[in-house]
Structure formats: C-alpha cells, structure tokens
Specification:
It is built from nine helices and nine strands. With about 260 residues, it is α/β, with parallel strands linked by helices. It has one domain: Alpha-Beta Complex (Spore Coat Polysaccharide Biosynthesis Protein SpsA, Chain A). About 40% of the residues are buried.
C-alpha cells in the first residue's frame, strides 16, 4: 500500500507513457509473452489504467509488433525512433506531443503489478514539492541478500524525502553489521523502484544533458539529475513491485496470476 501523498498540492495534469522495446536480452520478446492469456504489455497497460490522477496511458515503442498488440486491445501506442538511447528518450519523444500535460509518468513495460496508487503517489509528490523536477518510489529492504545485490538499486533520502544518492552498492554502509538492522523501524535501507514522474519541461531537457560521470560509473540514469544539482523527491511504498526480467520472473508472475 502506498503512503499518502502530500496534502498541499498544486493542481496539474499528467499522462503515463510506457516505453516498450521488443528486444530483451535475458527474456526474449518478453512484452509479447502471453501464457496468462494476455500479453505482458497488456497487463502493464491495464495496471497503469488503475491510476486516478493521469489523463491517459500511451505506449512508446520501437517495433510494429508491439504497436499492433497494444492497438489490438484498444490501447494507445506510438512509434518512436528505434535508435533511441534509452527508455527516457523514448518517453521524451512522445511527451513532446503532449502539450496538455504538466507531468509525465514513466512506467516500465515489464512492471505488470505496479499499483495505481503508486502512480498517483508519484504524481502527488511532484504536486506537493514545487522545487523537485522528478519523483520516484522506494520500498524497505528486509533481506541482506537484496541489500548486497548490485541488481537491486538502493536509495537514501533526506528528512524532506529528497534523494541524496542512488547506488548499486549497499547504502548506507553499516560499519558494524547486525541482522537487527534489517528489521529496524524506521527502516535503514530502501530499494529504489523504477517508476518516475517528471515535470514535462524538465523531461524534454533531460535527454539533451548527456550522461554524467556518476551515471557512467553506476549505470544509473537518475544520477545524471542529481549530479546536475536538481531535486528528486522519493515516496515510500510498503511492497515492491516485481519487474519481469528473467524466465523465472515470468513463470512466478504466471503462477501469481493463476492464484489471484
């Protein structure tokens, strides 16, 4: 369950864009897998529709097969440059035509279990922090294995909820380890969840900023924003979403769908 967004808000309009590439290394053509009876991209699209704040959902894709799949179930999809360097560039390409939106939410195409409440929280965070150019989410880490896993991106933030740093390393680093650190309240460790809401005008500038030194080292694009001196506000949710990256991830998702 998502924590409540700030109560003081400036009214904005927002739209969701789902970047969707056909190619994927660890799980080929994953967005078109349909062992549940629906394609993975359809699951993600329908999950995004549960958010109340955004005006609509659009898939930004590099391949005709995904475009046709989304349109086959009545979804909105647009072709983007196949040579786009990142999902953010793909989202920005579509966002250029969304003059009616103040905030653009980037939902990853392989996040079929992301809640509408989490998306609304990300929008609400930007409405409540006018100095931030982006918002994102985090969830407590309760496993040392996850804490030490470079694939699990960690984030630390200040008392206002603004990101201080993102890393593949365990942060903060406990000089003296005790397992009770994993069960502390409030939590010491947070996993970053790759959902982003951007102020549209900032998103359109972001792709042109070029990779930063820290971004190149960690391979984390959000560090480009921090290194340039901009504020990212972070909201905490109680449960992590589970991205689909490997065959095992997808099999587990299919089983969860059977028992839902």
């Amino acid at each position: 369950m998502a924590h409540a967004a700030p109560k003081l808000r400036v009214h904005t309009t927002s739209r969701i864009v789902i970047p969707a590439r056909l190619a994927s290394t660890r799980l080929p053509r994953k967005l078109l897998l349909r062992e549940t009876g629906k394609s993975l991209i359809r699951h993600t699209y329908e999950a995004a529709l549960q958010a109340r704040c955004p005006l609509g959902v659009c898939v930004a894709t590099d391949h005709r097969e995904i475009l046709d799949e989304v349109r086959s179930f009545g979804g909105d999809a647009r072709m983007t440059d196949p040579g786009a360097a990142s999902g953010t560039d793909r989202v920005a390409e579509v966002a250029r035509g969304m003059d009616d939106a103040d905030i653009i939410v980037n939902v990853q195409g392989d996040e079929p279990e992301l809640s509408g409440g989490a998306i609304d929280l990300a929008v609400g965070l930007l409405e409540g922090d006018l100095e931030a150019v982006m918002s994102t989410l985090a969830t407590p880490i309760r496993s040392r294995r996850r804490l030490e896993d470079p694939a699990c991106v960690k984030v630390v933030f200040d008392r206002r909820g603004r990101a201080l740093y993102f890393s593949r390393s365990p942060i903060p680093h406990a000089r003296t380890w005790d397992d009770s650190l994993l069960t502390a309240e409030p939590p010491h460790f947070y996993q970053h969840i790759g959902l982003y809401a951007y102020r549209r005008e900032f998103l359109l500038k972001l792709a042109g900023m070029g990779p930063s030194d820290l971004e190149d080292l960690e391979k984390l694009e959000q560090l480009r924003v921090l290194e340039a001196g901009h504020a990212i506000t972070v909201g905490v949710v109680d449960e992590p979403t589970i991205g689909i990256d490997t065959p095992d991830d997808y099999r587990a998702f299919v089983e969860r769908c059977k028992t839902a």
